[in-house]
Design a protein that fits this description.
Elements: E1 15-17, E2 23-25, E3 33-38, H1 45-56, H2 58-63, E4 66-72, H3 76-86, E5 92-94, H4 99-103, E6 107-112, E7 115-120, E8 123-127, E9 133-137, H5 145-155
Parallel strand pairs: 3-4, 4-5
Antiparallel strand pairs: 1-2, 3-8, 6-7, 8-9
């Protein structure tokens, strides 16, 4: 982990290409709460389930004054396909250079079947309207996670 985030710290800003040719910038959401969820790869089972759960609660997040942003190292083209396939209605940021992933400390060494590689540690960060980190969920288990984050957003 290159960065250690903590509750109360200022969330690292980023400007990244987003789906549909849009630019995704954390600063552009100042004044709103932001759920920034980091996921490993578009269109894989866990990542798809997580995206669908967040998408299903989009109206409730909006009522809580909260924007949801998904962020992975996939390309904009991959994000566009992923959003279209599952009807996702929130921004997906493409961090192919891994700058935001590293700033948030979620680009980490992982291990599978004894092989070590670099990848995204599934993590969610709730950022307050003032730009400070209100909650962090490291090593997320997908089932029920979006509802847990919504509960926190309602209380933040």
């Amino acid at each position: 982990m290159t960065s250690t985030l903590s509750v109360g710290a200022i969330a690292p800003d980023f400007v990244l290409p987003g789906d549909g040719g849009a630019e995704v910038s954390l600063a552009s959401y100042r004044g709103k709460k932001v759920v920034l969820y980091f996921y490993p790869k578009d269109d894989t089972s866990g990542c798809t389930k997580e995206a669908i759960e967040f998408n299903g609660l989009k109206v409730e997040f909006e009522r809580a004054g909260t924007v949801v942003i998904g962020l992975s190292p996939d390309s904009v083209k991959s994000h566009d396909k992923f959003k279209a396939k599952y009807g996702l209605d929130f921004p997906l940021a493409a961090d192919e250079e891994k700058s935001a992933l590293e700033a948030y400390g979620v680009w980490v060494e992982k291990s599978m079947y004894g092989r070590k590689y670099m990848g995204v540690e599934r993590t969610t960060v709730l950022i307050g309207a003032d730009g400070t980190i209100k909650a962090i969920w490291p090593k997320v288990k997908v089932d029920g996670h979006a509802a847990e984050v919504l509960k926190a957003a309602l209380g933040a």
